[in-house]
Amino acid sequence: MTYVITQACIGSKDTACWDACPADAIHPSPNKSEFADHEQMYIDPTECIDCGACEPACPVEAIYPEDEVPDEWADATAVNADFFASPACNTASN
Ligand code: SF4
């Protein structure tokens, strides 16, 4: 399983989740210039260890376990995974 950042992140992009994540699974890093190029943050499902630390850290309640994503953001799991599948995304540097 993985956790998922829904589109509720858009407009906030608070970095508390990134600070809370022990697995560096949340991208892009706020320390990288690419951070400004993305409207929300994303969780890499291959890096997430399902610890749940990011969920309560989010001030806008944008993060859910993948099996609890609200219907209004039903595509969020795929949106997160697709971010890391994109050839333009170099997660090693994000
Ligand atoms: S559940 Fe844990 S490992 Fe996964 S993104 Fe959240 S803080 Fe990181």
From TrEMBL:
Q: What does this protein do?
A: Ferredoxins are iron-sulfur proteins that transfer electrons in a wide variety of metabolic reactions.
InterPro entries of this UniProt entry? Answer: 4Fe4S_Fe-S-bd, 4Fe4S_Fe_S_CS, 7Fe_ferredoxin, RnfB_subfamily
| Organism from which the protein derives | Kribbella antibiotica
The protein depicted here goes by the name Ferredoxin
Taxonomic superkingdom: Bacteria
Required co-factors:
[3Fe-4S] cluster; [4Fe-4S] cluster
Keywords assigned? 3Fe-4S, 4Fe-4S, Electron transport, Iron, Iron-sulfur, Metal-binding, Transport
The free-text cofactor remark is:
Binds 1 [3Fe-4S] cluster.
Query: Which molecular function terms from Gene Ontology are attached?
Result: 3 iron, 4 sulfur cluster binding; 4 iron, 4 sulfur cluster binding; electron transfer activity; metal ion binding
